[in-house]
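User: I'm putting together notes for a lab meeting next week and I want to include a structural view of one of the chains we've been expressing. I don't have a solved structure, so I'd like a prediction I can at least talk through. The sequence is below, exactly as it appears in our construct file.
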Amino acid sequence: MPAETKTKPKIRRRKKEERKVKPASLSTRKRATKDYSAGYNEVKQFEGGQYTGMKIGRSHKWYYDKGEWKETKITPDLWEVHYAVTKRRAGKAPEGSGVPVGTEYHWYILAHQHVSKLNANDYTTELTGLKYKLAHKRADKDKWSTTITTQRKRLIKLLQDMITNLQKEPIPINIEYKGKEYKGEGLPVAQTCKDKVCYELEITLNDEQLGIIHCTDHGWRMKNIKDQKFVDAIGEEIALWYE
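Assistant: Thanks for the context. Below is the predicted structure for the 243-residue chain, given as structure tokens.
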């Protein structure tokens, strides 16, 4: 992305009708319909490739039971972690949707974990980031969809792409909202970029990771930010940068 050829957009107060920059104006992408149960296993298209399962753009919400997190310190800054828990869907799965019972997945998670100590024995914890599917195993199969060697190659490619993405210039964000100034950046999620426009970005403002902002046909969305006007202000700044 040719960030070096752009100047940081000047922030000025605009009239309400001027402030609405529709993310769909950057480009258009096909999004999920509201028929959640139909077509789960049908072949779908994405950037010249094919996939099956849940359509891009849809979301899951889960509740986690009381789990067990174990960690062992390896170096001053490196820890081994193990977490085991049952997660439960918030609500019920649509009739006929989803994979058969017994299906397994192998994910690799890249995330920020923010922890704040409350007292001698309790901490708050929050995880925001990405997870990437390395392989799956169907309920009626004994083998995974790819070999360990292929999974390792996929992981290497994922990490190499992540490093390349981290080395690029992020999109600068400088906004004022409710009398407070926010400065930071939006780091594009490389897999969502097309024709030098990225539709999902990891947002950091005032040295705090806020999560990923999504450009959808229905506006800007962030899973963990409840103030939609704040999300819109961040999205508008991103849209202005691309323009």
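A couple of points you could mention at the meeting. The helical segments are 16-19, 148-167, 228-242. Confidence is low (pLDDT under 50) at residues 1-21, 27-33.

User: Perfect, that's what I needed.
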